[in-house]
Design goal:
Structural class: mainly alpha
Oligomer: single chain
Distance between the termini: 30 Å
Order of helices and strands: HHHHHH
Radius of gyration: 18 Å
Strand content: under 5%
Number of strands: 0
Low-confidence stretches: none
Mean pLDDT: 91
Length: 138
């Protein structure tokens, strides 16, 4: 089983390098991110399984299948731009909630505060726009 995971990791690495070399924009970047996170999740599934945490392995397996389903839907609907905007807004709002929390405000790294500040204009622009991406139903 270890050999299979290692082989898959090398194969994913080759695909990621190829996508980085011949990338054609947001679509390829999104696919690369899904692939990299999927490989990390696959390794975690194997580690949980090997350590006897079958329940955790199955939870991660379900998460991996969910990611695959979402990627398939993004490709089928060609909705990479809508998904990226949706993801940006969600992450911005989560960071804003963290930065607004009285208990956490002083614990947040300065670079996160700078990132939030630098993305304020884009957030304003996208927040006023109707986002059409919706989580697909299985």
């Amino acid at each position: 089983m270890v050999e299979a995971i290692d082989t898959l990791k090398v194969y994913c690495g080759m695909i990621l390098l190829s996508l980085a070399k011949h990338s054609q924009g947001l679509r390829d970047k999104t696919i690369s991110n899904f692939l990299a996170r999927g490989m990390t999740c696959t390794e975690s599934i194997f580690l949980c399984w090997r350590e006897g945490s079958e329940d955790d392995a199955w939870i991660l397996h379900r998460s991996l299948l969910d990611r695959l389903f979402h990627l398939h839907n993004l490709i089928e609907q060609n909705s990479f731009s809508d998904f990226e905007e949706y993801s940006f807004l969600k992450m911005y709002n989560i960071r804003q909630k963290l930065l607004s929390d009285n208990e956490m405000r002083d614990k947040v790294p300065a670079d996160l505060k700078q990132l939030q500040q630098s993305q304020k204009e884009r957030h304003k622009k996208l927040a006023g726009k109707t986002n059409t991406w919706r989580r697909p139903k299985a």
